Amino acid sequence: MIDNLKKILNEDQDPKAIEKITAKLESLLMKNEEVGYIGVQKKPVTVFPDSIVLTNKRIIICKPKNLGLSMDFTDYNWDDIEATFVKENILGSEFSFSTKTDLSISIDYIPKTQARKIFTFAKEQLDLLKNPMVSNPIVETPTAVEETPVVEIHEMETFEEMETEEVTNFAEIMPVSQPNYTTESHQFNTQETPVSGDKSLSELSSEELFEKLQNYKKLLDNGLILQGEYDAFKKEILGYM
What we know:
This protein is α+β, with helices and mostly antiparallel strands and 241 residues long. It folds into two domains: 129 residues, PH-domain like, CATH 2.30.29; 69 residues, no CATH class. Helices cover 29% and strands 23% of the residues. The chain has a four-stranded antiparallel beta sheet, sandwiched between helices. It has a three-stranded antiparallel beta sheet with strand order 5-6-7, with helices on one face. β2 and β3 form a beta hairpin. α5 packs antiparallel against α6. The longest helix has 19 residues. The radius of gyration is 60 Å and the shape is rod-shaped. It starts with a helix and ends with a helix. About 12% of the residues have low confidence.
């Protein structure tokens, strides 16, 4: 405030009036409120001039009374002020402002230099209300989106492996005599017809007959003979065991 008062006193302010006003303002200023400018009337004939104080929060009109022993203060917040005006006359200038409730307040006989400073400061405060300055705006930087890796799922074909027992010598398991199968009568002719070079069932030992029966079972399991054929072979072999 002291630095601002030095500037103010260089613009035709009455030092005594400024001293009285600042003494009263010490107990009137709100938290974080700072005085921006003080204008003092300069009438041809007056001992106790009116003053106007502009802060960063409001306009305060100061009017002395009781021969300067006391003072009336009327304040107007910047939010309530609609517009400000300055009019230069022959004897000083008149600064006035209107409120949003259609009030019109003015103070005259303000030196021209002071009136211009008051008007400029008022315009700056109103502009700040309309276009508030954003200090150090926080710019959100887009965060890198982690791409979810695409996992290609290949359907694996499963093959059911059937255990099959390899047959190496078909001559060993082929029947010595092929039964004659008739579909109409569904009867098997189990008469043995020996094949040249092979033993007949009657000539085989029990171990050989059992081995031949196992080979027939392998043929059935591998789908090489039908169940009916296997049953016929089995019955025939069991007849010789």
